Amino acid sequence: MPQSAPAPALERPAPDLPHPTAGRDQALAALQALANGTRLDLVRALIAAGDTGLPAGVLAGRLGLSNSRLSFHLAALEQAGVVEARRVSRNIFYSAGLERLGQTIGYLLHDCCAADPRVSACCAPAPVANPGDSPARDQSFGTEKT
Predict the structure, then answer these.
(1) Where are the alpha helices (DSSP H) in 6-130?
(2) Which of 9, 72, 82, 132 has its CA 20 to 30 A from that of 126?
(3) What is the pLDDT of residues 13-64, one digit of tens each?
């Protein structure tokens, strides 16, 4: 009975790229948390708020969420590391976890897409339009201002 050839070894990643499993679980957690419209709106609002962040009450008011719904969504984002919380007196301020967001984007670009220039080209900043060219956009929610 002839013996079959041994199975080929798995190819190793290119030496200049990070190991493919490095950060995989963190990227999956972040992407799962961001795969919700309300949570994505929360992150956009917090990025627009900058390092100071926003208190929970302001976030709830801006998004029209009850305190319990806001708490549910913030907990998922915080657990994934894409939102950070800090206590100031009796208030809790939330801010975007920019490092984790950057790591997630980096993982997608470099580990998943192998830094393909066609993918990277899609991430280039859009040219700045003249203010009169189009309606102003509220950067925290992506809605047109009237």
Answers:
(1) 24-34, 37-49, 56-63, 67-80, 98-106, 117-122
(2) 82
(3) 443 444 445 488 999 999 999 999 999 999 999 999 999 999 999 999 999 9
